[in-house]
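Contributing new records

If you add data, match the layout below exactly. Sequence lines come first and carry their own label; structure lines follow with theirs. Keep one chain per record. Anything else will be rejected by the validation script.
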Amino acid sequence: MDLVRRAHAMTEIARKARTRGRRIGLVPTMGALHEGHLALVRAARERVDLCVVSIFVNPTQFGPQEDLAQYPRDLVRDSDLCITAGVDYVFAPPAEDLYPPGPPTWVEVEGPSSRFEGASRPGHFRGVATVVLKLLHVVQPHVAVFGRKDAQQAWIVRRMVQDLHVDTEIVVAPTVRDRDGVALSSRNAYLSSQERAAAGAIPRALEAARAARESSAATVDSVVQAACSVLEADGGLRIDYLELVEAESFERATTLDGERLLLVAVFCGRTRLLDNQAL
């Protein structure tokens, strides 16, 4: 495995690989890798000849009161995990390489970008869309793999790629969960043992919503309330948002017809955790 630190070097590697007919896969990450990220790597490896993992803590997707400075960074550990997973290249550029001095250029997907996670974190998805497009241009992947835990992010990336005619297939891989059902996340490391136990209510709430959906008398409100009751019962969680949306449009659902997603964001202590359930 090679570590690449400059964008122009990564682009030259990608250009030569494409010339030789090799398919390139990209797994964009902010580091602090865990089994969830490695599952994305495995999903990429199944589809490509050459796998690139980007490790870049993107400053433009953090709000002024968020944890940019405290976000965990350990490039040596992350690189070792990538070697074990069979990654070919780790692309870890400095911030000034992706964001050169001068007036910035932004990418923004209107509509869902301002709702749910976008409403809680203004400007977040503008930062995500911008950095993902930069990475796609630099790495030139045939395939890029994202996790389903961040469902709204995956939807926005897919829409951006579609609208801007980017020649990359976006694959959304299943959420990887711990034994108690809690979705793996780099932010789980912030949780105390008591908070980690409280987080177990999140998958239970999703399961309650799924069970409520199967009732012949189910409504949007009854499904949401089933999840809400579980989240509020323990007292260790504070709901940021709990919404049922149409999976294809990310509009708020008014009926249960068709595929729906229940989106959950909660504060567990000072840590925000995300999850979702397809219904």
